[in-house]
Amino acid sequence: MKYINFPDPELADDDGLLAFGGDLEPETLLQAYSSGIFPWSVNPISWWSPDPRAIFELATFKPTTRMARMYRSGRFSFSTDARFTDVMRGCACSAPGRETTWISPEFVRAYTKLHRLGHAHSVEVYCAEKLVGGVYGVALGGFFAGESMFSDVSNASTMGLLYLFKHLKNRGFELFDSQVLTPHTSRLGAVEISRAQYLQRLNTAIKKNCFFDDKK
Fold this sequence. Notes:
Alpha-Beta Plaits, 32% helix, 216 residues, 3-stranded antiparallel sheet, globular, Aminopeptidase, 25% strand, alpha+beta
């Protein structure tokens, strides 16, 4: 296995930009995520480690009354890892308020490859048997890096995220990375911690023996 010499995350600039170059091969991506680093563009590939870092606290996360009621309504159904590439493509499509996306065809190919190796995962959200939303990310030990989500109908991505939180918590995951806090993730309950705290918790989480699927 090749080893990429990533810079120390503490050397990132004020925006979190750490380095340019490298590739999006599975071993590179896994090394980056296990070091608290993630890619955010191609041509050139850029690597980031922001401070502060946005996370969801899986152990204490509690949905709002409205979210919980909608989740129980039966309007949506869910699956995991059934249509990973379709979820990525949904996330890549333009949406209101999003004129550009970092999820280029190169990203879709790279993360689909990572998915086939068992390291990248998706939650699919259906309404009347039609795919209407989803979430995808990368799992390492007890750590999950949430990459992106999409919604073709109101609240579909939020319900997918809630399903994912329950799924991860039931399997012993303890750290959910949301990268950079946005107004939307803040409303859902994301919080910020320092990069130093994040790296410490990441180091503990990736050592856990957790599985995204039902494999034991």
